[in-house]
Amino acid sequence: MPIKSSAFPLRTIHLDFHTGPWVPDVARDFDAKSFARTFRDAHVDCVTVFAKCHHGHLYYATDHPARHPALPKGFDLLEAQITALHSEGIRAPIYLSAQCDEYAANQHPEWVACNSELIQVKWGNSAFEAGWQILDMSSPYQDYLADELAEVLKRFAPVDGIFLDMCWDQTSCTKWAIDGMKRSGLNPTSEADRARYARQVAYRYMERYKKMVDGASRTAGGIGVWFNSRPKIDLDEEKRFVDHIEVEALPTGGWGYSYFPYVSRFVRPLNLPALSHTGRFHKNWGDHSALKPAAALKYECCQILSQNMSVGIGDLLHPRGVPHAEVYRRIGDVYEYIQRCQEFLQGATNISEVAIIVDQSLGDTPGPSGIGAVRALQQLRQQFDIISPRAALKSYRVVVVPETTVIDAALASSLQGYLGSGGRLLLAGRAAFAADGTPVLSEAGLISKGPSPYTHTFLRPIAEIGRGIPALDFVMYERGFRVLPGNGAKALCLTVEPYFERSYDRFSGHSYTPPDRVTDFAAIVRRENVITFAVPIFEAFAKHGNAEYRQLVGNCIDALLLRPLIRDRGPVHLEVLVARNREATIVHLISFLHSRQAEDLDLVHDPFPLVNMPLFVRMDKAPTKVTLQPAGEDIPFTFEEGYVSLKPTVLDGHAMLVIK
């Protein structure tokens, strides 16, 4: 029988099972009781299991010719897995691959997407390189997949959930795609129209398949449908197609350690149940015979936990159907810890005081500007969300607009309304200027003199904005704007310009030209509640990592955000996130340090201890008790001027201060 609990799962496994038709012994060693006990003993409460893999093969009782040829006759692996998991109270959502289906592609090559040169789309560089063929969802393949989904829903209703994978916008020039574009009034010869049509096709099949899942009799507590591989940054629009959110983020699998902190802060305010899964692999999916270090797995799971999301780990089941004991010893150690932490987070909501408005057209990888903004605020221990230009601003104390966000008429109006109600704003670089170089907001008090003629200038902070920065005119590695303070505005940082612009026939020394003279131009301008950087401060921080850039941002935010939620004297890499429920304020302290130790691979091997670290948490009144959880240790504290003062010690990378 299906699970009856209505709670969203908390500790999940995504159990990959992409098994080629040449593998001869599928499910040979599967044992239902042992299979289910493995997950139970590892503190898992939800396992996504496979109806259909990227090879296009099916793993349940069906007359469909795509059933895996090596699956024993009369044996329904999917049913056996679901029944076994349910017997231990574990949910079992069902996975189907969408645009990757080798069986369908080989049977119907005309369904494979092709580019404008009529070359079939494939992961790989040639016909003789292993890689998935990509199906065109405007072809009859969409109906083919709908029939498979309908059979799964009928066969396994009520289902715990449906996970449809590989659902990105795929452009194509098959006859079906071209005819469809013409019917939609689009021009097939236009690359932009092909992209527009790909989005239309995706939305149509997502709506179609969601209705099918909604029409099935789902179990109480079922997590509904999720379409994977779509840009999470579009979920404020696409959330109508899904019932929950899943963020796939394997830091060592190509996502890196900057991806999750960005995307999670965008999906968090969308008010849908959300989970994120990392992987247990050393590298990416398919790296089945290598484990990542235990410290890395704990770090990644604690990051997910701190974002108030359910925790997920990706694994790959061996074709013979037996989960590897060593894998689940490692997962179990982490999940036992996560389970103890989750007891204190019931009903909790993350607290954010700052919002970063991003350009959604950049997708889930926002480039240096977005990454620099996230990294700077994370290292400054600000509590922040990532939001779209359409989002409401009134709940935030400070709004940040990084360089790549275009302030159009609608956003300008929203920001002006926000400022009129007492909000505070930080603008960076070209976000402050229209295409013609004029300032977009009169409230900023800028007089623009156009882009700087110099690729490198130098910054001289004034007074409190220079706090913590050496008395040195320090370099800005990226080109900015020449700006003068207008009426009611003042310079917070002056621009020092070089002797001349470096060129092949006029240069001095190894690198950029030295500073020559302080100018009347301002690198930072403040007018009332608006601070503007005339330089691309976030882009420069992401590209060059200069600590003075982060300090400048921090000093400017401190000037706008009086009495922030968190103050501390911890190391730069420390991650601090705050949540609240009816009983307590919970402060996550995460202290792991990742480093580049292999080509394109950042690794984590050990926690970084925190010893008697000074921490200050703003509270409305003095607490009655503070504990360090999940260890259950009482923490001494004082309360002065609205801040709880503590000195926690955290030796194993993560702990939660529970302030009651």
Write the layout of secondary structure elements.
Layout: E1 11-16, H1 32-41, E2 46-52, H2 77-87, E3 94-97, H3 102-107, H4 141-156, E4 162-165, H5 175-183, H6 191-215, E5 225-227, H7 235-238, E6 245-248, H8 259-267, E7 274-279, H9 294-306, E8 310-316, H10 325-342, E9 349-350, E10 354-357, H11 367-379, E11 384-387, E12 398-401, H12 409-420, E13 424-428, E14 446-451, E15 457-461, E16 474-476, E17 481-485, E18 490-498, E19 515-527, E20 530-533, H13 537-544, H14 547-560, E21 566-568, E22 575-580, E23 585-590, E24 595-598, E25 601-603, E26 615-618, E27 626-629, E28 633-634, E29 638-640, E30 643-646, E31 654-659
Parallel strand pairs: 1-2, 1-8, 2-3, 3-4, 4-5, 6-7, 7-8, 10-11, 10-12, 12-13, 13-20
Antiparallel strand pairs: 9-22, 14-17, 15-16, 15-18, 18-19, 19-20, 21-26, 22-23, 23-31, 24-25, 26-30, 27-28, 27-31, 29-30
Helix pairs in contact: 1-2, 4-6, 9-10, 11-13, 13-14
Describe this structure in words.
- The chain has a nine-stranded mixed β-sheet with strand order 11-10-12-13-20-19-18-15-16, sandwiched between helices. An eight-stranded parallel β-sheet has the order 5-4-3-2-1-8-7-6. It has a six-stranded antiparallel β-sheet with strand order 9-22-23-31-27-28, with helices on one face.
- A hairpin with a 3-residue loop joins strand 27 and strand 28.
- The chain has 660 residues and is of the alpha/beta class.
- It starts with 10 loop residues before the first strand and ends with a strand.
- The protein has three domains: 11-342, Glycosidases (TIM Barrel); 352-560, Rossmann fold, CATH 3.40.50; 566-659, Immunoglobulin-like.
- 25% of the residues lie in helices and 23% in strands.
